[in-house]
Design brief:
Length: 182
């Protein structure tokens, strides 16, 4: 069941759901807009392949580097480029809620994807969500921190459970750390 605005507010009042920081103006009829933080991870271009094995970590310095955008500045996402971004908001679910990240149509119509395939937020998650942002446009797209870049649709599950996966808890500190530091 998808939660409507009043269901989201009720879940927040009971502690089932936390959104920090919360701006009620970003809450729509059946979704919450999430804003882009100033932190990005730019993937390095290289002829060397990346081995897609369980132990691979996107934070490996051979794979990506942290970019922090200064206040008032923007990140220029070139045509065909993918960058990792991070939401400003931390979303915390109890075991009865989960969510799906989706793009916003105003940006999708210009060629912006905000997730390649990892748009599900599992029950028990407490994250600043990492976004796999891709530019499918023939033109450069300029990304501004603070922009409501995507939306989160909340769902209630029939049975409660807790996700125990690798990315259950993510924050700016996790996002910018090298894999050796975690």
């Amino acid at each position: 069941m998808i939660l409507a605005r009043q269901d989201v507010l009720r879940a927040m009042s009971t502690g089932e759901l936390k959104v920090e920081p919360f701006d009620e103006s970003l809450l729509g009829a059946a979704s919450l807009d999430l804003r882009l933080s100033p932190y990005f991870r730019r993937l390095h271009r290289s002829d060397r392949p990346i081995d897609l094995i369980q132990e691979i970590d996107y934070r490996d310095p051979d794979i990506s580097e942290v970019v922090k955008i200064a206040e008032g500045a923007a990140y220029d996402l070139k045509s065909g480029e993918t960058v990792l971004g991070l939401t400003t908001e931390t979303i915390s679910f109890t075991g009865a809620l989960c969510g799906r990240l989706e793009g916003r149509s105003r940006f999708a119509r210009l060629g912006l994807l905000i997730h390649i395939s990892a748009g599900f937020m599992a029950p028990g998650t407490s994250n600043q969500q990492v976004l796999e942002i891709s530019n499918m446009s023939p033109r450069t797209l300029r990304l501004f921190p603070g922009t409501a870049i995507c939306q989160l649709i909340f769902e209630r599950m029939e049975s409660a459970t807790e996700h125990q996966g690798r990315y259950r808890r993510q924050s700016v500190a996790d996002f910018i750390a090298s894999p050796d530091a975690t």
